[in-house]
Write a structure and sequence with these properties.
It is a multi-pass membrane protein. Pfam families: FtsX, MacB_PCD. Keywords: Cell membrane, Membrane, Transmembrane, Transmembrane helix. By secondary structure, this protein is an alpha+beta fold. The longest helix has 37 residues. The chain is 49% helix and 19% strand. Helix 7 packs antiparallel against helix 13. Strands 1, 2, 3, 4, 5, 6, 7, 8, 9, 10, 11, 14 and 15 form a 13-stranded mixed beta sheet that branches. It has three domains: 261 residues, no CATH class; 212 residues, no CATH class; 174 residues, no CATH class. About 2% of the residues have low confidence.
């Protein structure tokens, strides 16, 4: 029976090639989107699970609070892990990571700039899966003066050969390369390229032989610990209370503070939604839910297409079904045959989708455009392959089940007499399914337009400082910093350059955080602020405006007597007249005073509110040289900087970037989300139009005699198009009425993620419906018009 069913299935598919091709193409699109999303979600949901000890490795983070202060930080003191390991036997190993930041690597007098550089411990091999392609993992970081580098860094420095045992100068030290490791996978929350052995002693943990509790409140590195098998997190927390009281609270009591330890399991860090300062970029679980929902919707649209086309062809198959029943086929055999037809088409579509997704991931710029990076690992992952096969089987059965039940019920007598007609129930079902398709398509389309509108708003909003015509030059090298004044004087003579300043901090890229003491309620109280180091030209170079008072004088030689705050800081402190108020650093005996108040500006992305800020005068050059240039003078500015730089700092390569590029990077995750949903929107529309094409072609074929009669009676082609399209138009408009309120509710929730947001554009929502109307009109109109233009005798000659 199975062989006969397969024969009938293939015969039918070959006989109705047009509809079969439409079905297979639509199913292939749906399965391709689903398969790509499954691989994407697999990559996202397995962050850090490639590390063998991910279930026992934890990052230590802290919540440190006091009156006016709260640090919720991913960093902690480098002195903490050895103390924990000494007092808690359940800790097997630890690894500390001190960030050097972007630094210079020198090899044979050739200089390279490198980021993701850290000092660490030998225990890094216990926490992370550092896969050495050269070197011995048991001792690669055990001796001072050792460094291990990623394969990508090795290739930059040494080309095709491995640089094991070579000497490099990094961060002012001569180091020997003792290992080369494979670059970490993209789905690692923590990325490093260069690891240097040894954590420098900060030298103030012990004072006169007594432990200095304050040292633990001064976080300087990322700390990870590895617990033994079967340890209890609850028991550790209980035991930690005594440690906390002994080592943290002596200083905590002095400042009326409190300390809470947080343990973050390695595999949970990326999607931990607790706001933490100085943390790595986090994943958004809401996005995963949205992407999954849209992916399932696309697959559902493809299934709906199949059901619609299969049931709409019931009239064409009536005689075939009638004959098979007369010849002895029972209803279960017919149903099996019809489900097999569905499964065969889904299998063909699945094979096409595998090829399409493989090409999309491995041999197209799609992922670079989207901003994601993962490999095609379907066949390397048996669980994933099994899941995809289950999806294919379920898709085939779901798609074919209703048509099998519906068509198999055709009565042979009416079918053979030619009097069988589809009931109203089948027609209503098809209309309902088409309506569902367009509700999904219009909803996703309008959501995409609104998301794009919000991202454009963020990129164009005035942040309170000039982000265009600002160039940032890396000045981490001590020689470059020593020559800053020479560079500044010469560059300011260039007609294309309007201003030059220096700082350790630049808005958007990085801001410091510090505790000050301020005049409040008649006494000096501690207060946490964000802070920026800035020279006397900082405001004019970046275009930041003063609200009152003045900025620093260029002849000032100290940074602890005068302070400039922003309006938010003044409001926080309740200062109606801030100028002259006392202010100083936490340990400063004699405070300085506030001399100026800045107009508020956004120094973080527009996801965040403006926070209290202090600009601290820094008489020494910082890590960045900030250059403001004239509009449309970018090439001249770069040429001027290169010339002056090569004269003043000949042995250090010029490394620069534009501030607006850094700002744009703040919204990369939003842009990626918008691009992905936009791509899925296009698929939704295409699949819906494929289904509409098949239904329209079938309906036009069914009504070809009616169209011929109308033509003979004088009807115009446009009238016939309007007649056929009218029912589709009603469905589109009804779908719009259902989709728009749902989209409005969903987008209101999405907009809540932004501190600054544009108003919900109703015009764009209506535009989504209009676009659907136009697309469907063009499609239906072209199909109907093609039939309406034919000579009516072709359809009436058999009557």
């Amino acid at each position: 029976m199975l062989k006969i069913s397969l024969t009938h299935a293939f015969r039918h598919l070959f006989k109705h090639r047009f509809f079969s091709s439409l079905n297979i193409f639509g199913l292939a699109l749906g399965l391709s989107a689903t398969l790509w999303l499954v691989l994407f979600l697999k990559n996202e949901l397995t962050f850090d699970q490639h590390h063998p000890n991910h279930d026992r490795a934890y990052r230590i983070s802290h919540i440190m609070s006091a009156p006016g202060v709260e640090f919720n930080t991913a960093y902690s003191a480098s002195e903490l892990p050895p103390m924990l390991m000494e007092e808690f036997p359940e800790i097997e190993s630890f690894a500390r990571f001190v960030n050097v930041g972007e630094t210079e690597i020198t090899r044979d007098n050739e200089k390279f700039t490198q980021d993701q550089v850290f000092y660490t411990d030998q225990g890094a091999f216990d926490i992370f899966n550092i896969d050495l392609v050269a070197g011995n993992s048991a001792e690669a970081l055990s001796s001072p003066g050792s460094v291990i580098i990623a394969k990508s860094v090795n290739d930059r420095l040494f080309g095709n050969r491995l640089g094991l045992n070579e000497t490099l100068k990094i961060d002012g030290q001569q180091l020997q390369v003792t290992g080369i490791f494979k670059d970490l996978p993209e789905n690692s929350h923590f990325q490093f390229k260069v690891l240097m052995a040894g954590i420098r002693d900060r030298g103030f943990a012990m004072v006169d032989g007594v432990f200095n509790s304050e040292v633990l409140w001064n976080a300087d590195c990322l700390n990870y610990v590895l617990f033994s098998e079967g340890f209890s997190e609850d028991n550790f927390r209980k035991k930690f209370e005594a440690f906390n009281e002994k080592y943290y609270m002596p200083f905590g009591n002095q400042i009326q503070g409190n300390h809470v330890l947080r343990l973050q399991k390695l595999a949970d860090i990326h999607y931990d939604q607790t706001p933490i300062d100085d943390d790595f970029a986090k994943g958004n679980p809401t996005n995963l839910i949205v992407f999954s929902a849209i992916g399932l919707s696309i697959l559902l649209l493809a299934c709906i297409n199949y059901i619609n086309l299969a049931t709409s062809q019931a009239g064409l198959r009536a005689k075939e079904i009638g004959i098979r029943k007369v010849l002895g086929s029972n209803i279960n055999a017919l149903r099996l045959s019809l489900i097999l037809e569905s499964l065969i088409q889904v299998v063909f579509a699945y094979l096409l989708s595998i090829a399409a997704v493989w090409a999309l991931i491995e041999h197209s710029p799609f992922q670079n455009w989207l901003g994601v990076n993962f490999s095609f690992t379907l066949f390397q992952n048996p669980e994933l392959l099994g899941l995809s096969l289950i999806v294919v089987l379920a898709t085939g059965i779901i798609s074919g089940l209703y048509p099998a039940i519906y068509i198999a019920k055709i009565r042979p007598v009416k079918a053979l007499k030619g009097t069988w007609v589809a009931g109203k129930g089948g027609s209503m079902l098809r209309k309902s399914l088409v309506l569902m398709q367009f509700v999904i398509s219009i909803g996703v389309l309008t959501a995409t337009l609104l998301m794009k509108d919000q991202i454009s708003f963020l990129q164009q909003k005035n942040m309170g400082f000039d982000q265009d015509q600002i160039l940032l030059v890396n000045m981490r090298d001590s020689v470059a910093q020593a020559n800053f004044q020479v560079l500044k004087n010469k560059l300011e003579q260039s007609p294309s350059i309007e201003g030059v300043t220096t700082s350790n901090f630049v808005p958007v890229e990085g801001i410091g955080q510090m505790v000050f003491r301020v005049e409040k309620n008649g006494k000096m109280e501690q207060q946490e602020f964000k802070y920026i180091h800035g020279g006397a030209d900082y405001l004019t170079t970046l275009g930041i405006e003063l609200a009152e008072g003045r900025f620093y004088d260029k002849n000032l030689n100290s940074g602890n007597q005068q302070f400039v705050i922003n309006q938010t800081a003044a409001k926080l402190l309740g200062w109606n007249d801030p100028i002259g108020k006392k202010m100083g650093f936490f340990h400063q005996e004699e405070p300085g005073q506030v001399i100026g108040v800045l107009k508020d500006f956004n120094f973080f992305s527009l996801h965040n509110p403006i926070e209290p800020l202090v600009i601290v005068f820094n008489p020494s050059p910082g890590r960045h040289m900030i250059v403001r240039f004239n509009q449309n003078s970018e090439p001249q500015t770069i040429a001027a900087i290169e010339e002056v730089w090569n004269e003043a700092v000949p042995n250090y390569p010029l490394d620069y970037r534009f501030l607006n590029q850094s700002l744009k990077a703040q919204y990369e995750s939003d842009a990626t989300q918008n691009k992905l949903i936009g791509f899925m929107t296009a698929l939704c529309i295409v699949i819906s139009l494929i289904g509409l094409t098949g239904l329209t072609a079938f309906n036009v074929n069914q009504k070809r005699k009616e169209i011929g009669i109308r033509k003979v009676l004088g009807a115009m082609s446009t009238q016939i198009v309007s007649l056929i399209y009218s029912s589709t138009l009603k469905l589109i408009l009804l779908a719009g009425l259902i989709a728009l309120p749902l989209t409005y509710l969903v987008m209101q929730s999405w907009y809540a993620n932004f501190e600054y947001r544009t108003s919900l554009n109703i015009g764009l929502m209506v535009l989504g419906v209009i676009m659907a109307v136009i697309l469907t009109f063009v499609l239906v109109g072209s199909l109907v018009l093609n039939t309406a233009r034919k000579n009516p005798t072709e359809s009436l000659r058999h009557e």
